[in-house]
Design brief:
Layout: E1 6-8, H1 18-21, H2 28-59, H3 64-92, H4 104-124, H5 128-151, H6 160-163, E2 193-195
Helix pairs in contact: 2-3, 2-5, 3-4, 4-5
Length: about 200
């Protein structure tokens, strides 16, 4: 008894581009706000990390680092306003299918701006316990936003049905602990069976 031939399906690229997907590149209305969001989140993450280094310098006895820590906090507030505006543009920009961008960058930027204001206030009030705890949470939140912004594709998204593999039907013959048999053309009478890598 011979087994049916196996046809391997091509792998999808890890980072799809307009050339590899056959789709036209995203219009500037989609691409530019996402680039601005990437730049703003990168700058805010760099300022937050610089703030931790400056705070550590102050705790090590370099008292001039405290002033630089405050300047970095004020600069971070300005960058977060830019990040909020970029996130609003990302949400507003519609792709070729007419759907809006993701909502989470706008919500995250608004929450970060509020938390940064609270962080600055606790710093000037010398509430060190709250300031340090909120600072640790803010560093984590900024890094999560940074990763999320860089994971947003710059090109327009394809419909989910174009990327989804064909469904596999499970029949009554397939008992517990057995793999389902593929259905469709070529599945019966020794036809080719598609196997995803």
């Amino acid at each position: 008894m011979s087994s049916p031939p196996v046809i391997r399906t091509p792998r999808l690229p890890l980072f799809p581009s307009a050339r590899s997907s056959g789709r036209p590149p995203a219009p500037p209305a989609v691409r530019l706000p996402r680039l601005l969001l990437r730049g703003a989140t990168t700058a805010s993450a760099a300022l937050v990390l610089a703030g931790t280094v400056l705070a550590a310098g102050f705790l090590n006895g370099h008292y001039e680092a405290l002033r630089a820590h405050g300047v970095a906090a004020m600069a971070l507030g300005g960058v977060l306003i830019v990040q909020l505006l970029a996130a609003a543009l990302v949400r507003r920009a519609a792709g070729p299918t007419g759907e809006r961008g993701p909502w989470w960058p706008l919500a995250a930027a608004a929450l970060l701006l509020l938390a940064d204001g609270a962080q600055t206030g606790t710093g000037y009030e010398r509430a060190v316990g709250v300031h340090v705890t909120l600072g640790v949470l803010l560093v984590s939140a900024h890094l999560f936003c940074l990763v999320g912004a860089w994971r947003l594709p710059l090109t327009a998204s394809a419909p989910a049905s174009a990327l989804a593999p064909a469904p596999v039907a499970v029949t009554a013959e397939d008992g517990p602990g057995r793999l389902p048999r593929p259905s469709g053309t070529g599945a019966g009478a020794g036809g080719p069976v598609e196997v995803a890598p």
